[in-house]
Design a protein that fits this description.
Layout (H helix, E strand, L loop, with lengths): L4 H26 L4 E7 L8 H12 L12 H9 L4 E8 L4 E8 L2 E6 L3 E5 L4 E2 L11 E4 L3 H15 L2 H6 E8 L2 E6 L5 E5 L4 H18 L5 E5 L7 E4 L1
Parallel strand pairs: 1-3, 4-7, 7-8, 10-11
Antiparallel strand pairs: 2-3, 4-5, 5-6, 8-9, 9-10, 11-12
Length: about 240
C-alpha cells in the first residue's frame, strides 16, 4: 500500500504546532501578575473608588501581584466586584503585559429618597445606598414614601432625565399620596401638580408650553401652583 507522504508531513506539522501552542500556553499561565489596573466606564462621579476595589480584592484574594495567572479565576473576581452595591457590571481580564485589569460600570442614581429610610433610586428603579465618596445631585423624593409611590416616582424621573430642560430645573418630587405627585423647580416658587402618572408626555408638553409663554411675559413669579392633572388645560393658582 502506497503511503501518502504529503499527508504524513501535514499530520506531523499539525502535531508540532499543537505542541508549540501547548508549551507556549503553559509558559504563559506560569507567568505572574505584574500589576493591578482599575478603570471606570462612563460616568466619572466615583461612588466606588479604585482604592475600594483594590481593598475588596485584597480582602478576598490577598495581594494579587506576583500571583501566577493559572491561579486566577476571572469570573469569580468579577462576581466579587459586582457584589459591591455601587457596581452595576465588572469585566476582568489579563492584558498581554500581565496586568490584571478591571473595567467597572457603576450604578447611576437618578433620584434621592428622603424618608424614614434614605437611599438613591438608580436608573433601573432599584434602591442604591449612599456613597461616602460622592454625593449625587439628583431630584429629592419626599412625602408619602410607598412601594407604589417609588415606582411612579421612577417613571417620572425617567421623563425628567430624557428632557434637557426638566433635567436641569426639576429638583424635587413630592409624593402627596399614591396617584398624586408634585414637582419642585430650582428657580421658580410655584409647585407643579402632576396628579397621577398617566399621559406624562402630554402633561410635560403642556407645562413647557405654559412655561415658555409665562417666561416671555415675565409672569412666572406670580404663580403658587401649576396644575396639570386636568385634560387639555393648565390651571394656575396665583400667589
Amino acid at each position: 500500500m502506497r503511503i501518502n507522504m504529503n499527508f504524513i508531513k501535514l499530520f506531523g506539522l499539525m502535531i508540532v504546532v499543537m505542541g508549540l501552542y501547548a508549551f507556549s500556553n503553559h509558559r504563559n499561565m506560569q507567568k505572574k501578575v505584574n500589576g493591578i489596573n482599575v478603570e471606570f466606564v462612563g460616568d466619572q462621579n466615583l461612588y466606588i473608588t479604585q482604592g475600594t476595589v483594590n481593598k475588596l480584592l485584597i480582602q478576598n484574594y490577598g495581594p494579587l501581584t506576583n500571583v501566577s495567572k493559572e491561579k486566577l479565576v476571572l469570573n469569580t473576581i468579577e462576581e466579587v466586584i459586582e457584589a459591591n452595591k455601587m457596581v452595576k457590571n465588572a469585566e476582568v481580564f489579563l492584558t498581554v503585559n500581565g496586568e490584571l485589569t478591571s473595567k467597572i460600570t457603576q450604578r447611576r442614581p437618578i433620584g434621592r429618597v428622603e424618608g424614614e429610610s434614605k437611599f438613591y433610586l438608580d436608573d433601573e428603579g432599584k434602591r442604591m445606598p449612599f456613597s461616602s465618596s460622592h454625593s449625587a445631585r439628583v431630584p429629592i423624593i419626599t412625602g408619602n414614601i410607598t412601594g407604589k409611590g417609588l415606582e411612579d416616582a421612577y417613571e417620572i424621573l425617567k421623563f425628567i432625565n430624557a428632557d434637557d430642560f426638566l433635567r436641569k430645573n426639576v429638583i424635587g418630587i413630592h409624593i402627596e399620596s399614591e396617584e398624586n405627585y408634585q414637582l419642585k423647580f430650582r428657580m421658580e416658587q410655584f409647585v407643579v401638580n402632576l396628579g397621577n402618572i398617566e399621559n406624562l408626555a402630554v402633561k410635560f408638553k403642556k407645562f413647557k408650553a405654559f412655561y415658555s409663554k409665562a417666561d416671555k411675559d415675565e409672569s412666572l413669579n406670580e404663580y403658587a401652583m401649576v396644575n396639570l392633572e386636568f385634560n387639555n388645560q393648565v390651571v394656575c393658582t396665583k400667589i
